[in-house]
Amino acid sequence: MKHVLSMAVSFGALCIATGAAYADCGIEAGSVRILSNDFEALRIVASEAEECASDTVTVTKNQTEEHKNLQVPALTIDPAEYTIAMVANNSLVPLLNDDLVQPMDDLVEKYGQDLLPNQLIRIDGKVMAIAFMANAQHFFYRSDILEEAGLEPPTSYEEIIEAAKVIQDQGLMEYPLIASNKAGWDLAAEFVNMYLGTGGEFFAPGSAEIAINNEDGLQVLATMKEMTEYMDPDYMTYSANEMKADWEAGRVAMMTEWGSLAGATIDDEGSTPEITGATVLTAAPTVGGGDIPAVALWWDGFALAKNISDEDAEASFQAMMHGIRPEVAEMYPEAATWLIKGYEPGAGAVGVVATANAGARPYPMSPYIGLLHTALGSELAEFMQGNESAEDALADVEAAYTAAATEAGFLN
Amino acid sequence: MPHKTFLAFILPAVIAMLLFIALPIVSVIVQSLYVEHEQVLEEVENCGPFGCTTEVRVDAEATAALKSADPLGRFNGLGTFFNRSHLAVSEIGVILADNDGLGDIAARIYNLPFYKALLFTLSYTFIVTPLGMILGFLIALSVNSVSQVLKGPVIFFSLLPMIITPLIGSLILFWMINSQGILGSALQALFNDPTLSLKASTPLTWLTLFVYGVWTAAPFSFVVFYAGLQTVPGDTLESAMIDGASRWERVRYVIIPHLGPLATFVALVQLMDNFRVFEPIVGFSAEANATSLSWLVFNDLQGESTQLFGSAAATSLLTIAGVIVLLSPVLVRTWREFSNKA
């Protein structure tokens, strides 16, 4: 009897010991396999989820910028290579198109006590993804330069262009503006952002028919082109990371840059206190007299693979709930604009919050927006360099998109 | 060699070539004839952190049913080859029927993605191949006459461009020619033009890519020609010297004819290499000014959400056709030399 008792005691001690080593996620058993993009906020969430690993629960992660190319093939096989795919507005679409993710309503009911209603991405009424952070490009300006030039902070692209002219004329800066106009994804994103600000739609309602070849499209192109007059002549080679570098070097006075890079731009690394101290983050500018901020809103979240066992699905959901619990947002307020309960926006998040509050529109989730994005990225380059008229550029985009959408089966 | 032995000797190579070269090409040919099924679309309510919208989505079940019934997709025949992204037959018809003269025709055809890529690819191939070979030959000649002590280091430095991964090499140069980089600012100072940028205009971007191409292609020619130089018969050279031939005449009348067959081989390899130019375009972020056929394939497969396999397959086949056309003169020549010997 005594022997049995001591065994029970030591077993209990063992349990306490393991309990201390592993976070208590309440998972009995299962395998959690995470695929995600690679930036700071996602690294935090994934490593928090990893704390749920125990003798019976394995947690692995693959964080790579190539995640978009991996996710469809990896989730198509049965059982899927990953149980969790971290996605954004645009990268959820290919998974939905091929029916590779499962609804999470039951799991939300069972384990999602800490979730806010607006974190649930409902498609046709079913929870297909859970968002935990928001992201958007928004306006950065240098208050010291604007003051020196005697200017009020601009709120629209028209005012930005005027301000840039003043700054250049006064010789305060050679090239006061910068934008991510690198041919390809970045250039297309600039167009999409500004087009959203006009209030126009990309497609004819309910179909894949393109609808950007209009006055709004021409106005967007004219504004994008006019801005390049105040940019470094290499403006067609800049993407978001190079913009941040130029900003930190103090070569630029105004830019529309990603909220997810704001924290790293105003921190005390890579720049001087004069520059970071004078950097103001605010809502994205409007365009053409409209009142919608001319940027796309993005959310980042996760979706649950379809081809996995129920046990793994449950374990994965619980591990992710641990990864995005309210304490995570409390611990890392500067890492992202969290959508998590109880989050107080940090200094790096004010721009995204202001942009969302001003009524910016989300990046569209149409199944064919990706094809339009690709067509924009390659067909607008000639116009931006002044080798083609805006009308021809939009006609080229329309033709390139139509050819691709026909081949992909969206158009006949 | 008896036929049987020869067959046994070559069989593994034939099997490997069938498996890894012929079969993939057959698969690409089949793929180029098909396009995706028609996607069944439906409108649904879509809610998230930023409110609700009505969006179109793919009816995954209905589309999956279509796919499983006919996994290859819809048969499209040669449709993909003739559409705007490739040979653009109907667009060219329109341009030819209604235009403002030759300049307009050229400009509008150049505006079509395939022809734009083809023009750069051909220019790159025909400029970089001969220049790279000439530079390689000159390096080989100079290394051959360098003293024994210096030979090792000189060979090592001449080979560097080939050792560096093309993508990395082009990225390094890309940053050096940036207007704040060492080469970029040196050029600005040299031409006294603070707005000079090698990356901003099409002609200068092409020039940069050509220079990069020659830089990276020269070492291969150098290695082959240098090896060839070691086989030049000393007696012939000596007798040419006794006859009073200058150094240039010895190169022109002894060395170059001796290296002729080697040059054919180098040209063959370099033509193929340069025709599939790709890495420098990505490394130099030159997509706005220069695209190549390989880049078009990459662009189709790197789509935001949808990969265009049919389109990529069609471009690949057109590239193969291009390589065959390019190589045919060299191949015919090799065949003649071979028949003459036999």
Automatic annotation (TrEMBL), chain A:
Signal peptide, first to last residue: 1-23
Database matches in InterPro entries: Bact_solute-bd_prot1 (IPR050490), SBP (IPR006059)
Keywords: Periplasm, Signal, Transport
Pfam families according to UniProt: SBP_bac_1 (PF01547)
SUPFAM superfamilies: Periplasmic binding protein-like II
Family the entry assigns: Belongs to the bacterial solute-binding protein 1 family.
PANTHER family according to UniProt: ABC TRANSPORTER PERIPLASMIC-BINDING PROTEIN YCJN-RELATED, ARABINOSE-BINDING PROTEIN-RELATED
Domain of life the protein comes from: Bacteria
Name by which UniProt lists this protein: Sugar ABC transporter substrate-binding protein
Organism: Devosia pacifica
Subcellular location: Periplasm
A cellular component annotation (GO) from this entry: periplasmic space
Main location: periplasm
TrEMBL record, chain B:
Gene3D superfamilies per record: MetI-like (1.10.3720.10)
Example of a GO biological process term: transmembrane transport
PROSITE patterns named among the record's database cross-references: ABC_TM1
Keywords per UniProt: Cell membrane, Membrane, Transmembrane, Transmembrane helix, Transport
Residue ranges constituting the ABC transmembrane type-1 domain according to the UniProt record: 118-330
Family the UniProt entry places it in: Belongs to the binding-protein-dependent transport system permease family.
Protein name, entry field: ABC transporter permease
Record organism: Devosia pacifica
